[in-house]
Amino acid sequence: MAKIKHHNFLNTVHEVFTDAKNAGVLHLYADGDSFSGRTIIVNERELFHFGTTGYLGLEQDPRLKRAAMDAIEKYGTQFPLSKSYLSNPLYEELEHKIEKMYGHSIVITKNSTLGHMGMIPSAVNDDDVIVLDHQVHWSVQNASKMLKTRSVPIEMIRHNQLDMLEEKIKKYRESKRFIWYMADGIYSMYGDYAPVQELMTLAKQYPQLRLYFDDVHGMSWTGRNGTGYVLDQLGELTENILLFGTLSKTFGASGAVLACSDSNLYDKIKTFGGPLTFSAQLEPASVAAALASAKIHLSPEIYVLQADLKKRIAYFNECLSDTQLPLIDRNESPVFYIGTGMPKTGYNFVNRLMREGYYVNLGIFPAVPVKNTGVRITVSRHNEFEEIKGLVEAMAHHFPKALEETGTHMERVFHAFKLQAPVKERPLRSQGLLIAIVESINEVDRGEWDHYLGGQGVYDWQGLRFLESVFQHQDKKENHWKFRYVTIRDADGAPVLMTFLTLALWKDDMLATPEVSARLEEERGLHPYYMSSSVLSMGCLFTEGDHLYWDKDHTLSQQALDCFLEQLEFLEHDLGAKMTVLRDFPKDAAWHTTLYGQGFLRLRMPGSCTLDLTNVPSMDDFIGQLSSRNRRHLRKDIQPFLELTEHRVVSQVDGKLLSQFKKRFEAVRSRNLGLNTFSFPDSLFEHMNRSPLWEFIVLSPLGEPKSVMGVMFCYTNTDKVYVPAFVGMDYKVLEVFAPYRQLLYRTIERAISLGMRKIDFGMTASFEKKKLGALVHEKYAYLQITDNYILELLGVMEGQD
């Protein structure tokens, strides 16, 4: 397998959002000329509103509205001046009120995103380190990444796993001043909490630990003076904590706020906080509305409002407890998440609820893993008890219908979220299809396999038998693979779908940039399996090409595809895989819509190269059909070196020469960090040396046949396709002898002499192969991951020294 380009995260997000937008559940517009908070009009339908983050309903409070309107009349629509020079007349009073709420110095910012961009680079020194909870809000992660330019290390831990945090503390406590852990107080998707008390215990044990909390979803609806969940848990804001809150969302106005008890740090942030210094200040209407809200927060009324909301939260929990709906985290926050698993089930469920009269939010990648799509429901004081009950009844009614209509079932949803399903069910949606999954190619009819899949790469029947002999019963777990052969037939026994899968240990950074892999390889010097996961893959790390037969014209083609994807989930669960990869699809793959709906992400692979040798009887004929530019390349960059070397084709060599082959191969593999894989076992080369299916094209300096400067490992499959599967080279002679280009030339020469109809050149070095007439085919892979942690961690690591 050749280098896979690092996937473009923004393109992936764009595709996911476009899919959801086309399904009618994202990028919607509210209709109507007024808004009450209790209902909202979408697509000319009035819906009960269960999607707001204004949990106390203060955005509709008449006092805030009047204050905002009066401020516009007095001061205009904005105060167009940097706050560093001059604040509008209402700012000072607002700051005093918010400071009274918190009991500490505060900084008010335009919004949360700008606030984090100002606070984090100011608070974190160059000799500090940042540790991110992998579910901390995007705005915190984005602001933290700015510090890469200052060489501040950024680490990441799995959500709320404090044992991982303690490992990071121990790693850096001798070399760094402060270790900043950044987390949300209440997480915006699942509504779960940060373990504040446990973090404070850890901070007492490790004085270098500093805590940075984004508690915007805990603001107002809980805590003393509505200062949020985190401060309610802390009781007192200590100097090792920075606490971020909001003046928008539940507060009912606009802006954000940082509370800080460290006077020196406060002065540093307040005096010059990057975008806090240069960006525009809050509009007079926003300041006035926030001031009116602050007065409510400082009065006994805030506790009446909080109690009123908590009654609704408790009632929603009570209603849910009578259902089997997959509530992902049961707690007392106003945020609820009902998992649907597959995106298309989420789309279906949201649309059903809207038709029933309820507006809810879709939770989708990158806020959650694609496979953890679901419905986020927020409860506010706007919601009456009768519509809370009505929503739960509607969900209980429509959830199983959404599952059925999208071809899934409850166990798949619970499995996606690592929950225990209330009912064990594994219905196979065979619909007249016969499904067979076996563990060895010996259990598959040879003629049938080669007829449908034997014409490419090293995975005709004999090739797979060879691979099984090498990669089964290995001592090292990275070399011990499990094979599965899937055949789905119609009632008459005709194959509708055939493929093979492997379970193998992959390095998590195999798809990352070489710079990231280089850093991880340093860690693997001590911990060889650091950041590696079991992956269920179509094909294997040894093969390239279209690993799939699918009769798209069969009347049961879609049913066969659905059955196959369901079987993949069962296999992933049974085999303990952390990721499923379907490979080598064209850009316009017929499976694209189905795969996106089932929670797969698409990423682009390098082009796959093939060379058609039909009606090419000799090397002279081949050269004659090259373009003039490619012939010039051949004359200038290859032919002069041919005279300096000698080559031979051998099928079996002695142990000393085979050792050189392995050494040359390992030199190439270890340098190719763009495709960072574990090394293959020595027995692979020994099997090649004994197998009549393989031969070696060996390149040596002229007159030195025992010196190997390059070797191509070549396989001939059942359909007369020549497969140069791997290459080995001596990099010390790269400039002197151009061994790679020579090996490409000799491979073509050998394939023509054998009467091969095609060469499967794979994906490596497509530019060089294209100059020798190869065609480059655009290829894509589809990934389904159990969580976003690895993707986000690799993203954090990019660009760090």
UniProtKB/TrEMBL annotation:
<dbReference type="GO" id="GO:0008483">
    <property type="term" value="F:transaminase activity"/>
</dbReference>
<dbReference type="InterPro" id="IPR038740">
    <property type="entry name" value="BioF2-like_GNAT_dom"/>
</dbReference>
<dbReference type="InterPro" id="IPR016181">
    <property type="entry name" value="Acyl_CoA_acyltransferase"/>
</dbReference>
<keyword id="KW-0663">Pyridoxal phosphate</keyword>
<keyword id="KW-0808">Transferase</keyword>
<feature type="domain" description="BioF2-like acetyltransferase">
    <location>
        <begin position="629"/>
        <end position="767"/>
    </location>
</feature>
<dbReference type="Pfam" id="PF00155">
    <property type="entry name" value="Aminotran_1_2"/>
</dbReference>
<dbReference type="InterPro" id="IPR015424">
    <property type="entry name" value="PyrdxlP-dep_Trfase"/>
</dbReference>
<feature type="domain" description="Aminotransferase class I/classII large">
    <location>
        <begin position="49"/>
        <end position="384"/>
    </location>
</feature>
<dbReference type="InterPro" id="IPR050087">
    <property type="entry name" value="AON_synthase_class-II"/>
</dbReference>
<keyword id="KW-0032">Aminotransferase</keyword>
<protein>
    <submittedName>
        <fullName>Aminotransferase class I/II-fold pyridoxal phosphate-dependent enzyme</fullName>
    </submittedName>
</protein>
<dbReference type="InterPro" id="IPR015421">
    <property type="entry name" value="PyrdxlP-dep_Trfase_major"/>
</dbReference>
<dbReference type="Pfam" id="PF13480">
    <property type="entry name" value="Acetyltransf_6"/>
</dbReference>
<dbReference type="InterPro" id="IPR015422">
    <property type="entry name" value="PyrdxlP-dep_Trfase_small"/>
</dbReference>
<dbReference type="InterPro" id="IPR004839">
    <property type="entry name" value="Aminotransferase_I/II_large"/>
</dbReference>
